[in-house]
Automatic annotation (TrEMBL):
The lineage of its organism: Eukaryota, Fungi, Dikarya, Ascomycota, Saccharomycotina. This is F-box domain-containing protein. InterPro entries: F-box-like_dom_sf.
Amino acid sequence: MILEFPLDVWGLIIERGRLDIPDVLNLLRVNKQLNVLLKHNSIWYRIMYNKYLKLQLQFDIKSAKQLVRARNDGSTSQNYFQTCMWFYKKDLEYHNSIPDTNADIGMFLDRFSIDDDYLPIIYNHYHQLPQDYTEMIRKKNYRIHLSERADCLNLLQAQSFKVGIDYLSKMFNGEIDTTSASALEEFWFNISLLDRASHSLVYTRQQVLKRIFKLLHRDIRIKIFFNESIHSNVSLISVENDKDILVFKDEQALMQLIVHIFRLSMSCLEFQNPLVSIDDEVVFGKYCSSYFLEDFSLLRLYGGQVKGHPFLIMAILIKVIDEFLISNYRIRFEDSENIENLQINMTSTYLRVRNHLFSFDRKTLTLFTSFDVYTISEVVMNLRNRSYFEISKFIEPLEFKYVVECFLHLDTFMEAKSLDTIMRPDYYFTNPIVNLNSFVHHEFNTISAQAYSFLKLLCRYIQDIDSENDFLDSMFCRELERSMNYLNNHIYFNAIFHTLQNNPSKQNKVKAHFLDHPSEDWLFSENFALFEDNSKISIKKILKNYFFVKVRDPTKPLQSGTIIKHEKFETYGIVLGEVMTTNENTHYYRVYTTKKTTECYNLNSISVVDHNTKDLDKLLNFILKSCGEDVIASLFGNCLVLSESHPLLLMF
């Protein structure tokens, strides 16, 4: 009876029944007839797509796109059973190599951080692990292993970083088409992949875009077809074997449709910040005239975590207009038979659609639905006292390279001491209609500012990939070494080294500076000892040189890894070590806080968290999530030890 099921029914059984690859392989062994039936390409394509390709597509992996494109084009040359077995072999290899608590992350970075076939494998494994430690703590299991989750996180971040840095390398080498309408959105997406949070947010991009296009189809195409509501001045002419034609009554009708598309699209970019209550009055967010460094993260914008800089908003809208309107329709007006060219471009301040300019300045942390519309004549009249060159900056389309340079020229103004935020005025994004003398601030969290400075360093070196300058190469290597010895940036070394393979001369300079054993198969594990002082990349260097702390001394009041609470600020954190001072009677400690900043606290202002702390399970989960398990495992070791008689320590 079962053998008589048709192929599509077997496909539903496998997909809806959530049968994994081993389950289907067992079915192949039942008999020859079922073996032949279940080896059909359509069965294994769906298995491979759901388990591996779907996630690779979210990261814009080229090989996955090629497989899906070949499938959609009806190609029969690909054997999807063999391709899926290739993935499954790597899946088994990874799971058989999962580290124990004493394993060196370097070996796993060498094996799994460069090959993007491992990306969905690591991602799937990470989400199968327990997402918190509540049950362990409640059962008084006082030894909690962090290594498995931490290694997964580090590998995911290294894989995301590799995709982003590879894109930037190809872009600077002219291998990326920067003239397409989606080029800007693609650029900001790959910049976001260099963000530590990218692996957990990447799925939101496709979700939000699908939601936008579904909404546009339902609210615009269907209503135009039935000649409803605001679309009464628009008619649709269906054309066989060609794009349909939208006929507008006049220019104003076209702009009304563009405005409606913008509003529908931006209604899907919801800011998820919780409501703020001020004097019992509930308000949506708060006024904010500044843009934060995180506002340049496209994935955080899609995920509703930030309001988003106008450059990112405009990049999304250009992509939407191109894929929904320009790619599917031709446009003309009622009084003409000529097809109109709908051009949409970004200027230094506006989004330009034909002769209209759209201004986006999201000053409040609310649902982003408002914008201003001007004609070019209105803008020129407002700027009539400016020179032609100055006026042209506001109305002429921007080149792609200008947007890149704008982002790479943001200045963090790093200070020696730790600050919550660092601000500076920037005149690139001035809105001349509102106030000719106004400016927009950029704020930088110190951790974000370090990451941004690291990104700028890499981009400048990759951008200058063809130049030969021994002094600059030497400077880069020293700066790269300093950056590698900050938090857990060392996980990116393999990706950076392989990105430089397009320029053997520069790669050899990095090799000579960092590597004693030039084997590229075991690049990290054979050249760096993370817990030795003389290694180029070392956890001890991070603690001693960057955080200015002493080596652990058991005789001191607090040891490195002690979980503490600042009594006045009510902030939790983990002690990195004692700050070097000349006064032996005063003790100051460098603390890595749950705000992901490093602070210097006096011993008298902090208390130690121990096993008697109220709601210990919730507190520890909060600390681990806020500080980041990847960073904690790198700086303090792989095991969280809870003792009934001692403070909570993260042990080496």
